[in-house]
Amino acid sequence: VQLVESGGGLVQPGGSLRLSCAASGFTFSSYGMYWVRQAPGKGLEWVSAITYDDGNTYYADSVKGRFTISRDNAKGTLYLQMNSLKSDDTALYYCARKVAGSWSWDYWGQGTQVTVSS
Predict the structure, then answer these.
(1) So what's the pLDDT on residue 55?
(2) Residues 59 and 67 sit within 8 Å (Cβ to Cβ)
């Protein structure tokens, strides 16, 4: 299983970024997926989730209305569109594979850094 995140960077408050996660080594279309993040000095925070068939999406209250999770099962890729970014969104963002029948995850990538600063 391999998950490779990309698309992070430095952006001003109010700006946008689109993160991508390229998945390989497993049947991507059979698994729900998460985005989670870790801000400096803080623990892991769940950000968003999407079911295996793209039928349902879920968001943390802190990002609801600003972030959109999506997936392309044909390409084996997970996305996170982030709009109206705030300094509190500064973190290392990971994509993670959901464990079937559970809300936990079992694999995650190396992360991509998002820094929101003027």
Answers:
(1) 76
(2) yes
